[in-house]
Specification:
The structure is a single chain. The chain has a domain of 49 residues. The termini are far apart. Helices cover 73% and strands 0% of the residues. The longest helix is centred in the N-terminal third of the chain and has 23 residues.
């Protein structure tokens, strides 16, 4: 068995069927972008949709394996990267602390 096939088999055992995961991701992303368009009367930018897609991918994996801490860490990392990008050049951006 090729190395790639071994990796895919291992990932499948952790995250479930690839196609099922992609379908779930697409469904969730469709709901998010539709809600944005409904509220703003225009489509979400492709960059913002990609921000969401990274987190949605991890959420779809967590739906199968919610105790896989690496996926939670990745979500936190993606959210932080988006936060840093959105605040880039805006040192006076308001932040909320709880």
């Amino acid at each position: 068995m090729k190395t790639t096939d071994k990796v895919l088999k291992q990932r499948g055992s952790v995250y479930g069927d690839f196609h099922d995961g992609v379908k779930l991701e697409a469904d969730i992303l469709d709901l998010i972008t539709a809600q944005y368009a409904k509220h703003h009367k225009k489509p979400m930018s492709s960059v913002h949709a990609m921000y969401f897609s990274k987190i949605v991918m991890k959420l779809s994996r967590l739906a199968i394996t919610p105790t896989h801490t690496d996926s939670w860490t990745d979500i936190a990392g993606y959210a932080r990267l988006v936060e840093l990008h959105l605040n880039k050049g805006n040192e006076n951006a308001k932040t909320t602390q709880e």
